[in-house]
Predict the structure.
Amino acid sequence: MALTLYVDTARWRTHQHHVLQQYPGIVPVCKGNGYGFGHERLADEATRFGADVLAVGTIYEAARTKDYFGRDLMVLTPYQITEEPVPLPTRVIRTVASVDGVSRLVGARVVVEVMSSMRRHGVTEEELPKLASALHDVRFEGFAIHLPLESVNAVEEVITWMDRLRAARLPLHTMYVSHVTAAELARLQQQFPQTRFRARIGTRLWLGDHEATEYRGTVLDVTPVAKGDRFGYRQQKSVGDGHLVVVSGGTSHGVGLESPKAMHGVMPRAKGVARAGLATVNRNLSPFLWQGKQRWFAEPPHMQVSILFLPDDVAPPAVGEELPAQLRHTTTAPDRIVDR
């Protein structure tokens, strides 16, 4: 029995095609857990639609993905002078975020990332005069800029950097951009026709159609309990009469693991406070749904299963049925992927 990711393959690929049309020269991104699909599956998809470059997160991901994707691989994490040497083919393009890093990658294929308003990493304007000479010793593939998700001045920020690079007399044949809309990309391409703008896209490409995928966990057991009955690892008492439902999907799958959220506005903050208050009395909503409602964990999820509590006024599912689960793709590792 398994936690399964079901994929409406035709719908998923229709969405991919729509994104590809919006972003000419797209560089698909396959990093982390492969957006829930895995690196091999996404490499196959990128090969199918003819991508000439596939972006991965780290050198370790590149070492694994090179056997699945036969064209160029771009490593998004910048080169670090102290990093462990990992054997990689010459078709791997390294991102570099410092002049010193460029100087140490003699003969390598490199993309130079500039410092955006993300303030994460990148070459600064002050370093540009020293960059020109360093580029002579590498196979320069272009510049890159990684913009914030919620940028209100994305185009203006890219234009500012294009002007800086042009003033420094640096080659501007290719600029890789992240987190721009199709309209913003078209505007940039129109303003700088001599530069090829290439959008690096992961989430929008693979996860943009939420109806194309669904997680489901298999019901493994259903046990009736009365109020006060003890159960589980920590022998908690049941809060009432009902049923304990054991379902596939635990911490090893990413169930119960959640990234911190940035909250804006009074209502989201109020809900966050309410959830925190319930958690202090061991009341936590699970991602699993039954009869259209998100159900409560009976106790924290186990490694491979979760135990849910259903009150006695809710008819329980049968063993073997599957419960839909609202899970975040980037933190979930399903047991299997089923195309349908």
Notes: The longest strand covers residues 213-225. The chain has nine helices and 18 strands. The two ends are 18 Å apart (CA to CA).
